[in-house]
Structures are given as C-alpha cells and as structure tokens.
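ok trying this again, last paste got cut off
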Amino acid sequence: MKIMFNKVPDKYLFVVLFIIALCISSSFMIYSVHKGIEISSDNRYYFNLGKEFFEHGITNAYSKSMPDAGLIYVGPLEPLIIGLLIKLFGASWLPIRIFNLLVFSFIPLFIFKISIILKQRLPGLLSALAIIVYIPLLRSTLQAGKDLYMVLFLVIFVFLLLKLFENPNNILSYINLGVCLALAIHLDERFVILIPLLFIIYIYILTKKIPKILPKTIYSIFIIFLISAPWMIRNYIVYNKIVLLTIRLSPFIDPILGQPEFKNLGNYSSLFVVNEAQIDSIKAGTKVVYYGNYLQRPTEILPIHSSAIEAIKNNNIPHKFSKTERLFNSFREFYLPLTLKGHWSGIGYTYRPKYTIKGIIREILQYYIFLPFFFIGLVILYKRSRLQTILLLSVIIFYSGLCIIAVDFTLSRYRLPLDPIINLMAMIGLVWILNYMFYRRKLLGKKSYIEELAICSRRFKNKS
C-alpha cells in the first residue's frame, strides 16, 4: 500500500486535498448556517470596518459607521479584502464566507507541500487531512476575522523559507518571502516578529553560502518597505506622526521616536473581567454588573459572568499578576489552555471558566493527543535534517514568544496559525512510531496485533 501511495503523483493529491477541503468546509458552513451562527464582536467589527472602508475611504482615524468604536486599531489587509468583497457582491456575509472557503482549501495544500520538502510525504498527507477537519479552523471560515488568513500566511511563509534553503540562488524565493511577509504584517502586526527571524536567516545564508546572495536579500527588504509605504503614509496623514502598521505598536515605537503617545487606546474587557473596586460588593451580592471601558464606551453596562462572581464568593480573589505570574499564565493559555478548574487569567482580573465535558473531549482529540507525538517528530526530523528542524522550531518560538511576552491577554486561539506546523510534526512522530512497531514485529517474525487478537479470541472460546 505504501508503494502504491508513493507512485501517486503530487499534483493528483493536491487536487484531491483541495476538493476534500472545499467539500468539508462547504458542508460545515451549510450546517452552521442552518443551525445559526453567532457572530462575535471582533468579527462584526471587521465586517463593519470593511464596509466603512468601502463607503467612506481609509483616511479616517475614527470609524464613521461605528462612532463609539474609537480609533481604528487593526491592520488594513483584512478590512480591505472585506471592503472589496462588499463592493463587488454587496454587504452580505455570504460572499465573505465563500471566499473564506477558498482560502481554507489552500491551507492543506501548503502543509502537504512543506511535507514534500521535508521528505515526509505520508505524515504530510495525514496532517493535511487532520487540518481539514480541525474545528477551530473550520469555524474561522464562518467569520470575517483574520484568524484564517493568519494560518494561510504562516504556512506559506514556512514553505517559502524551506524553498529558500533548497536553492538560495533563486531570486524568486527572496521576492516571494518579501511579499508574503509584507502582506502578513498588514494583516496582523504580530507577524513583525518574523522580520528579525528572516534577517537572521539571511545572515546565516550569507556567512555559510555565497556573498553574491547579498543583493537578493535586499530585494526582500525593499519589497517589505515598498508594500508598507502607502499605509505608513496614510498613518502619517491621519495621525500627524509616524505610526508603523497599527496604533497598537505605538506604545513600543513612540518612546523610541520621542512622539506623543495615544491616549485612551481602550482597555480589554469582557463579561469575565472585574476590578479590585468591585470585589467587596460582589462578595456582598450587590455588584453584578460593570461599566465597560473597552474602546471608549464608558456608558455601556454589561453583566459580570456568574462563574466569575461565584469564584469571588468562594474566596478565589483576583489580584494583579507579577511578571512571572503573567508569563506563566500566558504560556499556559497559549499552549495548555485546557482547565478542569476555573482560574484568573490575563493580568489577573479575567476569569477563565472550567471546560465543559464537550470542550474537554474536543481539546484532547484535536490538540492534546498530538502533543507527545510532536516531541517525537521533532527528534526524528532533527536527526534527519537539523537545519529544517531549526527553521520550523524558530518560527514556532519567535511567534509564540511574542504572543506570550508582549500580549497581556493571551488566548489559545492565538496559537491557531502554528497548529498546522505542530500537527505536521506530530504526524511525523506518529508515523515513525507506527513504522517502528510494524517493522520490528516483522523482523522478529511476530504476527500482527489483529492476528494475535484473533488467536487469543479462539483460545478463549475453546476453553469455554
């Protein structure tokens, strides 16, 4: 069977994977629409902002269609895509979701392409199929948020990096990396962390390979600046100061450039957020609402979730986390989000309720079950190709490190762009273990597990 699989051309498998991904994601969308889709506030914000860009242009600091939403704080790429779809097909969620289905269907193709470069074709196919039925990714096709596009850009970036090391003399690799990264940072500013990683890789190539590569590396840098220039000019016109990508980078950039900082950028809040001033009244049962302060909406009254109230009444009192506590909590939320007991998160005042039974089963089957195999796959791949393994691990460490260190309110969904890479490594480990078990039994002349089970069953029947 393995010989037959190896004889199947890659182009046929690409077509099959694309069709399977499109069919499954379309079926999931139809089922979800029939059942009813709950649109989150973040996704509604992107939809309205795309509509805003189409109707009023991109030179407004504040949203006209959403006057209470404050400064536009997200990257422009996703709202521009949504605005274009609205311009072409009208202000409807359907064309956005159909476009998302196409984007989703390309993700397993790039996972399989990565596995071919790694010479791990079978694990790549299994990983691609696993990602096709990955529920968090399927859910992102129903929304107008950027999560789905972040996954696509990250797997493309990893693919292009591996292709670069296959042929460092190919100028297209440098151009494609520059375009990919430039678009990615305009989707989400967290991708900025990949720019220093790319420079480190270029320096490595220059020191280990050929000095003639230097002009080609400049192409990538030039393309990133070229694509970034229009939005930076727009930001300067709108804010009358240098703003790199989004205003969320300003707290880091303004002190360096000596610029006045933005005021009232908005504080994170949700139904699970409390502050110290409310604790005594919550314990006494007199405070069950808070006045929202997220995105300059001071008059909004929202209920505090019952699980947060119950935790405080049970003397599980929130407090402001130290740096060590916050980093530990962010790491846990990013990589090990499953919790059997509710706990305080974020900077110390955001409550995470315990998982439901359904949530526990889903997390185990789609993520935790693969973690042991990930580490095995890491070792196996490292033995076969150290450089490729270091590249993959560097992307994981750089991206996750930024989310854990620089983001106060780290969520498990921030890991979604890395999940295909983690899953691929896990499949490499899983396939190696299965191959080891099969060939070991074959070399020792033992029967298969199914044959042994059948023999034991017959013996038991004979005795009885």
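PB: full thing came through this time. The two ends are 38 Å apart (CA to CA).
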